[in-house]
Every structure is written in structure tokens, then in C-alpha cells.
Amino acid sequence: MKIKTILFDLGNVIIKFDPAIAEKGYSSYGKIKKDVVVDYIMNSREVDKYMEGKLTSSKFYTVTCRKFNLNIKFKDFYEVWNDIFYSYPEMEKLILELKKKYPELKLILVSNTNKAHYEFLQKKYDVLKTFDGHVLSHEIGCIKPGSRIFKEALRVAGSMPKETFYTDDRQDLIDAARVMGIRAFLFTGDKELKKQLSTCGILL
Q1: Which pLDDT tens digit goes with each residue over 124-145?
Q2: Based on CB atoms within 10 Å of each CB, which residue in 4, 27, 55, 79 is the most buried?
Q3: What is the pLDDT of residue 115?
Q4: What is the distance between the alpha carbons of residues 143 and 136, in angstroms, rounded to a whole number?
Q5: What share of the chain is helix, strand, coil (3-state, %, to 5)?
Q6: Are 17 and 85 in contact (CB under 8 A)?
Q7: What is the DSSP string of 83-133?
Q8: Considering only CA atoms, which of 157, 135, 160 is closest in space to residue 2?
């Protein structure tokens, strides 16, 4: 079946990030043990709740500062929080090529993210303006691998699962999408993504 929609994960697919950068940044404002902030960002219920929109930015700041005993102002906290990202030029080029060569394809961003990160990224990275829709965990109250976020992406795109290609760097999220019938592929780099797209008839 012909692909009508491509769903893209955001972090470490379109834009790279490294939580160790935040850990280094916060260490200037308190005594931080190695890897605890990295684990907090990647695995904690507090961050999940922020990504689900269940914590405001103000509340998340308070909770995190208390947890790590940080002496840091709100503005500085979020400067460190947003400093983890850096560009992935090859992927930005790939997305622009996709849009130019296949204007009929809908490109939808599907991301576990939070208000601070998304607002920062939207201002800094013009490639995000290329997308036809943004389905964001903090706006719909559900993080991947929850089925509701994938269902919302399909609704926004107006496509059936078998008409939908999805790329993500986490295998558990790929597995969740495949259960729903989405044609999902593990992201390991821009070159491999081109090969995966070609198996579905999308040539770059």
C-alpha cells in the first residue's frame, strides 16, 4: 500500500540531544552525583509528568530544584534545560528534500516532549516549520508508547496505519507502533533511513 504519511520522532532523529549537557550545566548550581540527572531526564516519573502536561513549567522547576537541591533562578534553570540540543544537518536536508520531491506526502511530528523544550526548539530550528502537523505529548496528555498519541497522529494525518511510515530511535516505541499496524522502522541514522524509505517506494 502506498505511503501517504511519514511520522517522525523528534529527539535524536531530527534534532540531536545529550542529557549529559544538562547534568554538567546543573552541577554549577549544586552538588550533582554522576549520571543522576541523566537518569532523571530519561527515566523519571517527574519528567514523564512534565511531558504529559501534568506539571506546569513552574511546578517542574520547583520539583527538580528541590530534588537536586539546586540554587538556580527559573530563567537559568530553563537555559540549562534547553541547552541539551544540537543540530543534525543531514536530517534537516533529508526532510527538506522529502517535502520538495513528494509534496503530497504529509509529514507529521510525533514527540514525547515538554512545553519548555518545544517552545525553544520551535524558535531555533526552522526545519520544524516544514511539518504539516505536530502531535506533542504535553498537549494531548499522553506519551509514547501510549496508543492515544499514535491514534491522534493518524487522525491529524488522515491516513490509515498501513499508509503510514514511522521512524523513531527507540525500539519499544517502534514495537508499539507496529502493533497498531503502522509501518515503523528503527532510526539508526539518515543513511539507513533513506534505505528504509526506499523499501516503501520513497526514493531520495
Answers
A1: 999 999 999 999 999 999 999 9
A2: 55
A3: 98
A4: 8
A5: 55, 15, 30
A6: yes
A7: GGEE--HHHHHHHHHHHHH-TTSEEEEEE---HHHHHHHHHH-GGGGG-SE
A8: 160
